[in-house]
Amino acid sequence: MTDAATARSPHLPAQSSPAVLRARNLSKHYGDARVLDGLDLDIDRGQFVAVMGPSGSGKSTFLHCLSGMTRPSGGSVLLRDTDLTALDERALAALRLEHFGLVFQQPHFMSTLCLLDNVLLPGFLSRRRPREEVTARGRMLLERMGIADLADADVTEVSGGQLQRAGICRALINEAAVLFADEPTGALNSATAARILDVFGEIHVRGTTIVMVTHDAKVALRADRVLVLVDGGVEEDLLLGHYREDQSAERLVRVSAALNRQSV
Amino acid sequence: MLTRLLKADLARGFAVSLSLTVLIALAAALVTAGTSLITGTVTSIGRLSAHARVPDLIQMHAGQADPGEIDTWAASRDDIVEHQVIKTLRVSKQTLTIAGTNQADSYTEAAFVTSPEHFDLLLGDGDAPVDPAPGEVALPVHYQAIGIAEVGDMVTVDTGDWSTSLRVVGFFRDAQMNAQMIPSKRLVVSTEDFAVMEDHLGDTEYLVEFILADASASDTVINDYRAAGLPSTGIAVTALQIRLINSLSTMLIAAVAVLVAILLVAVAVLALRYTVLASLEIDLPQIAVLRAIGAPPGRIGRLYLLKYLVLALAGGIAGCLAGYPLSSALGAPTRLYLGAPPATWESIAMPVVLTAGMVGVTVGFVALTLRRIGAVSVVEVLRRGAGDGMQSRRHWRLSRSRLLPVQQWLGLRAALRPTNALLLGVITLCTFTMALPTGVATTLDDPSLATYLGTGQADLRIDASTGSQDLSAAVSAVERTLTADSRVTKHTTIARRDYQMPASDGSWSSVLIDIGDHDAFPMSYISGRGPSTLEEISLSYSRAEESGVGVGDTVTVRSPAGDRSLKVTGIYQDITNNGLTAKALFDDDAPTLWMTIYADIDDSYVISAVAADLRASLPGVQVTGMNEYASQLFGATAAQVRTVAAMACTVALALTFLITTVFVVLVLAREESQVGILRALGSTRHDIAGQYVTRLGLLAAAGVGLGLLLSATMGERAIGLLLGTRGAPAVQLLPDPWLTWLIIPTMVLLTVAGAAGLTMHRLKTMTLAIID
């Protein structure tokens, strides 16, 4: 199958595929401006999906609709059998807390809490596990991200890269089924960005589904699947398979070609 | 351009702008009303004193007197410009009926007089001295003020064997006995009716009045007068004391209004500072951009200053306009008792000038705060973004919290931040402002107030004063009746006599000494004990202060019979008779001013029945329940304090509401990003509201607790300092526990909850758009 053929194929896997997230006829508009326009998409369990597209293509809006942060204007979003659009605010908040992890481009942290407390916050909020256990997991995650020595640091005392790693720890504290990341390396230098991407790779290997918005082809090539959004619709859907470092160049060519086709 | 920016800014923070404007308006209204009341009262008193020609010195004398003697003595002195002797006929309360109501239970003591001709004038309508015709009577405005009588009503005196009825033709202002808290009232009748009454109402009292060349020399004159052996069985009063007592009630309200206004201005300045700092913090990126493109800090500052100037001016003008009707309402009793104050340019301009000054001070503080704009580091702000400026606190770790739910933990920790000082301070002040006057009002209504009246606690007091009646016969009759009454468990008789005692500067002044058995109804002493031998004396606090003596010292008491040295055994509190009293056991032949018999009744439920029986069987003496005595003595003051307490509560609750509103709106604006993060992480608005409820609840509870504590400690001390000048320095407030510990805290907490409930609606409109 050529890249072009792949791009034009429907974005729905076969009926038997274990889709964890499904969008059906998803649309979102702000006044007269249609940001998402009748979008259909299935994301399989354990898949690492990169969402690309030019500015204003609806990448972030798409991510917000999938993660329940924004209510779509039409259509539905299903987490397994649960329709997010039918949930009230309380249920939606509970869903974000228990099943989703969010990593933002800007490190949005509670400035009054130290780094460890920020990481533990969703764990304590969910009350699913004893606090001792949550704390131990938080310390373990910080350790794994290489920032254990910064646990008691103020959020103003650490670098952007360290904050982003802490943000990933926070997203993982409740063992999220799906990790959403909006330009997680956008504000970082290339060396730090590479470390963050390694972390995403590790998380993906452990079986977590990841949906990541990025404008950088070098970041997107780490994903199993790359979607290119243009004017609120999926114009390219590349299935790259599991990432291997020795295939980086070839994957970069494919992603770049898809972007070129869409004049991105 | 400026107007557009201003409009946009005002619209954005409408609730805060409105609250600040109302706060300034409230302060301005109180400044205007308070100033207007004070200038009005001062000019009214001045005007009334001038028109009525208030004497500089008045010596009271009960019993018979020879005015000729006084005329001769006065004529021989250069320091006396004018004098007159006014004869009054005291009428016992049981025999007097006004507009169908018998005055037996009244606090006021009425006496008939004819209208004075030269000075101490009793002024009716149009400031003309009243001059009733035969069959008519003119009453003091007090009776009109408390709604006892109207023109056309009848005043009847019925002694049993003689009666007369007089028609009320008008009311007058009595510059000397005007004040509500003075029990003596003069009723003016024609010379003809007075002559008839003299034959039937034998209880006479003389007012010996002087106008002096030098009003400040009244002490010398009165001492010489007494030394000359002229009629002087009663107390002496000076013009200054008359002015003081006249102004006291109105001034009390005016002073509280001004004090509350100062408090409001302070709170307004704090609230504005908080608002300005919060706005600056929120607008920091814009300010940085403006600075980056080269706008001078001064111009940016003026932009903000303009907004607060508009708010302060709007509030100031609205408050000033509202202040005049407020002062008119609060000053209604003043106008009635003292007459309408003449409109002078001071009375109109002073409130406006002071209100303008208040607005100026407020804006000045804003200008000072705005100088911080110059200190904003452009690069720093543009590099890191505005942030919320809050740092974490090292000692508070969520990871160490084991039980408290997260939102409550966050709320608790936020409540302990210094930025909450504004709300905590305001709630503390407001609770204090409510609790203290309420405590004073309930104290004045409490029976144990007798502690401060220089007497022991008894159920009944029976007063028999000198006059035409035979005092000892009257007292014997009372004692016989009490001994025979099985309901009376014990009683004792105390004689009150006037002596001289040296002050610390060596001059001699009057002291009223109670002579009798002081152990029968023991009273509480600040220090020491009561006298137990003939050579001992206990002094009231003010008397001890004036003489500069303490327990263990020796004082000299002078009577016509000679000097007597007595050892001071104790100091007690007494606010009656200017606080200048003493208690001793010695007995001499000095004239007795009046005698008081104290009695205890076996069953407290029958006190009023026993009092009624005694009144019926003992005409000519006054029988009063001690509770009733205290409440009547303080009745007028207590009413004033109740008004003040109600005013303070209203203002305090309004202030609590306004500041809570401003605080919550600003806190939510400041913490919008934190709310956004919590929501993105999976907290509902309801959960987050719980955090703010915890925070505000803790602040409100702490504020209420601190306010009550302050009221019970510092408030009581302040009242002690104030009453110390009146003779009761160790006053203990007796607050009504329900009112102080339940109703006031509940009202404050409900007000905070109401304001928070209204403003926290804003949480609903907050979207997650901040997390992009």
From TrEMBL, chain A:
SMART domains named among the record's database cross-references: AAA (SM00382)
Gene Ontology CC entries for this record: plasma membrane
Matches recorded under InterPro entries: AAA+_ATPase, ABC_transporter-like_ATP-bd, ABC_transporter-like_CS, ABC_transpr_LolD-like, MacB-like_ATP-bd, P-loop_NTPase
Presence of keyword Transferase: no
Residues annotated as domain ABC transporter: 21-256
PANTHER family in alphabetical order: ABC TRANSPORTER RELATED (PTHR24220:SF685), IMPORT ATP-BINDING PROTEIN (PTHR24220)
Protein name: Adenosinetriphosphatase
Automatic annotation (TrEMBL), chain B:
Keyword Membrane on entry: yes
Keywords: Cell membrane, Membrane, Transmembrane, Transmembrane helix
Principal location class: membrane
The keyword Membrane is assigned to this record: yes
Subcellular location: Cell membrane
GO CC terms of this entry: plasma membrane
Top-level division of the source organism's lineage: Bacteria
InterPro entries named in the record: ABC3_permease_C (IPR003838), Membrane_comp_ABC_pdt (IPR038766)
Regions that span the bilayer: 251-272, 308-327, 347-368, 421-440, 644-669, 692-714, 738-758
Chain ranges of the ABC3 transporter permease C-terminal domain: 259-370, 648-764
Its membrane topology: Multi-pass membrane protein
Protein name: FtsX-like permease family
Protein's organism: Propionibacterium ruminifibrarum
